[in-house]
Amino acid sequence: MEGMDVNLDPELMQKFSCLGTTDKDVLISEFQRLLGFQLNPAVCALFLDMTNWNLQAAIGAYYDFESPNISVPSMSFVEDVTIGEGESIPPDTQFIKTWQIQNSGADAWPPGVCLKYVTGDQFGHVNMVMVRSLEPQEIADVSVQMCSPSRAGM
């Protein structure tokens, strides 16, 4: 999931990188050991088989399967605060664009939520802007420093 930070145990990652066997019994045993022997060999073999016997991918698939449903923060655009629809900016001009947004979901946003540039014309060098945690239905302004294109246009 985009934007999710996961702290991986360096020792665990080192074990993954050192494991270079193709012996299925060894892979099943290692899968069981890494998960604290909470799965029987048949279930381990299922996850390993569906990931082409790649131990690291099998562990990831297991955690993806077993992780609780994660709710993604909900957001709604409320209005343009600065530079609204139809307003113009002279070419090659620095400006600050501000939008009003709302947490339209039922849960508070977790710390670390950000808005990220994905596609379209990018008017500046900002790829991401952090947004403070918002309570359900709370409204906030988000501002980004931008620069208009060097040629006039829409």
TrEMBL record:
<feature type="domain" description="Nbr1 FW">
    <location>
        <begin position="82"/>
        <end position="154"/>
    </location>
</feature>
<dbReference type="GO" id="GO:0016236">
    <property type="term" value="P:macroautophagy"/>
</dbReference>
<dbReference type="InterPro" id="IPR009060">
    <property type="entry name" value="UBA-like_sf"/>
</dbReference>
<dbReference type="GO" id="GO:0000407">
    <property type="term" value="C:phagophore assembly site"/>
</dbReference>
<dbReference type="InterPro" id="IPR013783">
    <property type="entry name" value="Ig-like_fold"/>
</dbReference>
<protein>
    <recommendedName>
        <fullName>Nbr1 FW domain-containing protein</fullName>
    </recommendedName>
</protein>
<dbReference type="GO" id="GO:0043130">
    <property type="term" value="F:ubiquitin binding"/>
</dbReference>
<dbReference type="Pfam" id="PF16158">
    <property type="entry name" value="N_BRCA1_IG"/>
</dbReference>
<dbReference type="InterPro" id="IPR032350">
    <property type="entry name" value="Nbr1_FW"/>
</dbReference>
<dbReference type="InterPro" id="IPR039517">
    <property type="entry name" value="C6orf106_UBA-like"/>
</dbReference>
<dbReference type="Pfam" id="PF14555">
    <property type="entry name" value="UBA_4"/>
</dbReference>
